[in-house]
Amino acid sequence: MLGQYLKLPRAVHILCVGSFINRAGSFFVAFMSLYLTTVLNLDERFATLNMGLFGVGSIAAVLIGGHFADHLGRKRVMLLSLFAGAATLLAFSFARTQGVVMCLTVVAALLAEMYRPAASALIADLTQPHERPIAFSLMYVSINLGFAVGATVGGMLAEVNFRALFWLDAATSAIYGLIILTTIKETLRRAPTTRPATQRSGGGGSDPPGCGTTDDSGALAAQQAAVVPLAQAALRILRDSPFLLFCLGVHLNAYVFMQSMSTLPLYMKHRGIEPAQYGLVVALNGVLIVFGQLPLAALVGRFDRGSVIALGALLTAVGFGLIAWAQTMLHYALTVVVWTAGEMLMATSMSAVVADLAPADMRARYMGVFTMSFSSAMMISAPLGGWVLAHPVVGGRGLWGMAFLVGMVSTSVFLVLRTRIAKHPVVSSA
What we know:
Elements: H1 2-6, H2 10-24, H3 28-38, H4 44-71, H5 74-92, H6 98-112, H7 115-126, H8 132-160, H9 164-183, H10 197-200, H11 217-225, H12 230-239, H13 241-257, H14 263-270, H15 275-299, H16 305-321, H17 329-347, H18 350-357, H19 363-390, H20 395-417
Helix pairs in contact: 2-8, 2-9, 3-4, 4-5, 4-6, 4-7, 4-19, 5-6, 5-7, 5-9, 7-19, 8-15, 13-19, 13-20, 15-17, 16-17, 16-20, 18-19, 19-20
């Protein structure tokens, strides 16, 4: 199993290391609602509304980022996202009023989230179809290893100096930008249709795409001709009903998952759980992914992707529904285990499914729309979840009951699509 990951292009490994560093300092979203209510003494409805504004910025970011990544290049978009995003985080740490907080939140989301479709397209450029589930799983593990470190450190640092969270977040973004600037080469219009065996195995002394020279001039010419105008690209996506239905299922599932970053810390705070304890509970999510994602990806390789994704959505729904009955840190930790299992099952396949569904000339834009499924969920779910949580009649239990129902609808969508997205196994033996 390990050999499959070692054979990936060197540029993929570099991206994974950089993503770990960046994610280990990504405190902005996870601790923003606590920062606004604890340090700035703003009310909880504003805090969750502000999370929704982050979603608004994210929607614009992934569409813009995907468009420009297909035109200007993956590397340029990623560098702009990381360096400009770092500057915005520094500015956010000095914000005091609601208006400034709201403006900087939108700008931070716009800059930070531009990175995602470009990075996903870069990985898809660097890998063959049978390698993509492995590559995306490795990236996912790197991100969540960083998240596990970041949630633990962030929870402890929040007890000492909340604003330092944003300074450290900015520093890790800048470090990741420097890694990309110095080690990664542009892949747009350089992605070959096939990669020589020496590059797939990491041997032969030649650099893999993204770290070395272009492999095939014929493939380069073909990629250069494949520039799709924005209006035509939008029309093609709107006509791709299986892809859009898949994104709907992802959106509904993300609606549930986003509660872990918006309303869950507030809900736990109401029940006497301190920020440091919340950090430890949520860090369990990252720890489970770090140790379980790669073995799980190999284990479920015999099953079709559609069934795996549907099962993951079901476990996510059940896990968040169980929060309504949690009383102690152990109870919350057990719910994290359940919904993390669902998250891992879905993560083995979702990005690979999108990469396979996307035409080569629109890969970053498909990834952008896919990422928008998460961003739009944050825009809606955070304010709505905050309203439900604060409602004197519905309250917390009603919130987690709603999360369960929405998760079940998401599961139903994936079951409808199961045969369409089941063409490839999760991990091919090729």
